[in-house]
Amino acid sequence: MKRSFAPAAAFLLFLAFCLAGCAGTGGGHSHLQEGYFVQLSVAREDVRVDGALLSEEEFSALEGELFALVRSLEEAFSLEIEGSDLSRLRDAAAGETVAVCEDTEALFSLSEELADMTDEKFTPALLPLTELWGFAPADAGSYNDARPEPSAQALAAAREASSLSLFSAVGGGIVKADGRAALDLGGIAKGYICDAVVSFLRERYAGHALDGIVKISSSNSAYLGNARREGEAQGYTVGIENPRRLSTGVADGLFLVDVADAAVTTSADNYRFYVWEDKIYPHIIDEETGKPADRGIIGVTVVVPETAHPYAGALADALSTAAFCMPLTGALSFLEEMAQAYGLGAVIVARDFRYYAVGEVHVLGRKDYASYCNRYLGTQYDVGEIEEVFTEGDADAASDEVLPCAQELAYIARVKEVLYGA
């Protein structure tokens, strides 16, 4: 008997995760304590050393150590935790040097490097703008509330305080030139934390073959070694979450296959957003305009080989954010340059429901993935009954004017109905 390929649409669960901006990490063990917001997910059945599963006792001890590592980094980077490096820097006066830990210092330096690489399409200095638009931690619970745009005067004032040039590293500390300025490492910290977990695992099992999956919150993952299928080592398959699941009922619209020893990050507009006058306002702020990004892109996934950069996860995190804030043709060109430099791959999904693959990445639509499963996993999906969500676009014909298609308009209408009863 052939099976349908359409996953069940768990809309209520989806809304609890996505519209509130705190997504679950899927299968495996997740840790989340009161006052902490970064989730670690790692499952015993996914971790193998020299091809063998760890004992329950060893895995439990390892998981506890990893959780402690993640928590210590969040305690430095989080704006929500009183006394953290970033909260103290936020509250500091102009000219006051704030002592920070080595990881914060390293992440700030890396952020400066990547901001320069992306012409500040990625920048950690946009917290005043994030606050203005209602996406800061203090706004939790109201991210999705419909609201008009801020005034031009308020926008101009927030932009003045949102420049990375206002910050300087000074001998184990950071100083800012404007008391209103504040750093928000949310666009890179989860990737950096993922790198730290991978580094810990590599050191712990040095000299051994290591396979495993590490997930940090919903958007950042590392795939170590290979998956195991009936004893054979093969690359991992990674589903790219469908940012239009609410209206299509499909969890994963695209799939990456043969992923191995790589960091994967997705930036999309379905976490922390609101709709005003039939327009989506995502939490990702475009430094060039000072407004929520509106370039016709609804999702960017970046895959960086572990060997390409000492901080593969942080690089993937920053580049996905940067590309999200670029015009479509500029994003394609930029990611192509990054593919040449780092051997990375990327997938851009636009609001006309077209997707574009760049660099070293093997992307399958839903039909091709079903055929792939039938061929390699022995499934019996009825490929003819499967509907695609996104279709592949021609990069040479891409335009910066990306108009919403009928499916996009249906999604916006569905969001308004669910959020606002419209």
Question: How would you describe this protein?
Answer:
- With 422 residues, this protein is an alpha+beta fold.
- Helix content is 34%, strand content 23%.
- It has twelve helices and 23 strands.
- The protein has helices spanning 11-19, 56-77, 85-91, 102-117, 127-132, 152-160, 189-204, 245-248, 312-324, 328-342, 366-376, 406-420, and strands at 29-31, 40-42, 48-49, 52-53, 97-99, 167-170, 173-176, 210-216, 220-224, 227-229, 232-234, 236-241, 252-259, 262-268, 273-276, 279-282, 285-286, 291-292, 297-305, 345-350, 354-359, 363-364, 391-392.
- The protein is globular and about 65 Å long.
Largest sheet: 11 strands, mixed
Average pLDDT, all residues: 91
Number-wise, the strands total 23
Helix content: 25-40%
The fraction of residues in strands falls at 15-25%
- Which residue ranges are poorly predicted, with pLDDT under 50 across at least 5 consecutive positions? 1-28, 30-34
Helix run count: 12
Based on Cα principal axes, name the global outline: globular
The assigned structural class equals alpha+beta
End-to-end distance, in Å? 42 Å
The radius of gyration is 21 Å
